[in-house]
Amino acid sequence: MGNNVIKILPDILSNKIAAGEVVDRPSSVVKELVENALDAGAQQITVIIKDGGKSLIQVIDDGCGMVEADAILCFERHSTSKISTVDDLHNIQTLGFRGEALASIASVSRVEMKTRTESNPEGTWLKLEGGIIQHLGKTGCARGTSIMVKTLFFNTPARRKFLKSDQAEYRHILQIMNRFLLSHSEIAFTLYKDGQMVYQYSPTDLKGRIRQVFGEKHAQNLIPVNFDIPEVTIHGVVGGMDLFRQTRGEQFLFLNRRYILNKSINFAVISAYESMLPNRLQPFYVLFLEVNPQQVDVNVHPSKIEVRFEDERRIFSIVQRAVKEALRSTEVVPVLRTTETTSATAQAKSSPQKTAPISYRPKEQYFPFEFRHTKRRPNGVSSPIAKPQTEQQVSQEEEWEKPSFEERISIWQLHDKYIFSQIKSGLLIIDQHLAHERILYEQALETFRKSRPASQQQLFPKAVELSPEDYDILLEVQFYLNKLGFIVKDFGKRTVIIEAIPATLKKADEEKVLREIIDEYRNSEELDIRDKVAKSYACKSAIKAGDRLTQTEMIALIDGLFATQNPYFCPHGRPIIVTIPLEELDKRFMRL
Fold first, then answer.
1. DSSP structure string for 321-344
2. How many domains, the chain?
3. Distance from CA of residue 428 to its chain's centroid?
4. Both 185 and 154 in a single domain?
């Protein structure tokens, strides 16, 4: 046998490896430090951020503080005051318990900590670099703990290289902070960014905290949820129809006051809305589940966001029932149901059609070429058609037939969603939303290269209150929104005034469009800010499925589409045009 090749890693190296699981970006550091502050009994927590957390993250609390011995020991791996036995692991009441966070953070940054307990006149001052103590001494400081994390990943350049922009990292921090703000509304929180105060929230109840974070509109559209049975308690709020959005950014689920992600419970909430929720929209909710710690495993992942329930099906049923009863008790159901008639998609969802036998009714013949002077096809009549072609099946080099002037009389709209047109080779089908999205996208890019287009002034300028994250995104894209024809001015305290919107939006709800653009921009993976704004604007400003078009509007839409550089795919890569060859129809009817 040769020399041993398996060795025990030194603590410095093992801590750096552990840091890869616990600390992946600045927001992870904020999460761990704020959790420690809350576990220490803090009533006031201040978070200071510089350069998106890359240069500085500081968390100051008025908690119990630490004596010198504990201050030194807390930076050792697997050192914790939260648990001491296996039974403690099965009955966790605190946010942190692993004893890995501070050791991992210190190993990849420069850390400075000052801490003092109530009974000690002097505090402890500790400096570390790369996990190694550089200074230990006494200092005067307030009761509690102040910990500064500087130059994150300074000794792991590969990790630092993969961090996003300062703005992107800062938004991740805002998302983390929102979770703490909502789960601990009785705590005062203050946030500073690059020397400027972002917010200072005083202690309040849940509704008051939602008002502080999201604004008055959210606070006035909340439905309380209270459900209590043995071993499971659910309380919190769900949002009314005015808070429906197209992204899940405003959904918060807490298990024993710990933020978690759980697809099953999220689906339970959505399914509780039943037909009240329009297609593809997401409800607002802040829900707290109190479950016996012995019936849940939070030790699944270092982030503690993933959990396992002993009986997940039962939890699903309880959550669904709790939300259903809350919606019924507030009479929100009939109010929401009346709005469904405005959406063809939602209407179809609320009343699914049953398959009906095809019957011949001579008095109700359907002639699509006569447009709106004809009666609609009887319900239940359908025919199999070819599946939409994929991007691989459609190439930009393929020569599409644009309907000629004579053929435009053969244009009609199907289910207020698709435009059908007869062409020489068969049938042309256009998705009206995607077509308009492509037109607006190319117009937006062209506008960025030229002067600002015409705007329509609002008779009554609209004030819109935004969350800290949405407000930050708006400031980032404001220049490009103005280039598109929006006139949006900062009114202070995260409120903006919409004085004008692009002339192309006509009778659009300016606040809704602005919020949807922000949501789309947040979820976009594009690196070019101009392209992100153009895609967000086009997607949220285009006509929607369910919008009825006149013959003139359909012709104008087709003309506009074929005038674009790429009429075949929308900006996100979805096919706009599908053709059904006449030969395919002949085969279906067994003519060939």
1. HHHHHHHHHTTHHHHHHHGGGG-H
2. 3
3. 36
4. yes
Whether 128 and 222 map to the same domain: the answer is no
Side-chain-side CA neighbours of 380 within 13 Å: the count stands at 8
Whether 584 is covered by a domain: the verdict is no
**CB within 8 Å of 574: residues ≥ 6 apart:** 431, 434
Q: Tokens 């501070």 map to which residue?
A: 102
114-166, pLDDT tens digit by residue? 999 999 999 999 999 999 999 999 999 999 999 999 999 999 888 888 899 99
| Secondary structure (3-state) at 373 | helix
Q: What is the pLDDT of residue 306?
A: 80
User: Among 329, 344, 363, which residue terminates a domain?
Assistant: 329
Domain presence at residue 566: yes
Task: Please give the residue range of the domain that contains residue 131.
Answer: 11-203
State the first-to-last Cα distance of the chain, in angstroms, to the nearest integer.
78
Same domain, 146 and 250: no
Which DSSP symbol is given to 101?
H
Per-residue pLDDT at 455: 79
Q: Where residue 294 sits, what CATH number does that domain have?
A: 3.30.230.10
Cα-based distances in Å from 188 to 38, 203, 257, 287: 11, 5, 16, 20
Tokens coding 330: 């507030």
Cα–Cα distance, 211 to 203 (Å, whole number): 12
Tell me, rounded to whole angstroms, the distance of Cα 195 from its chain centroid.
27
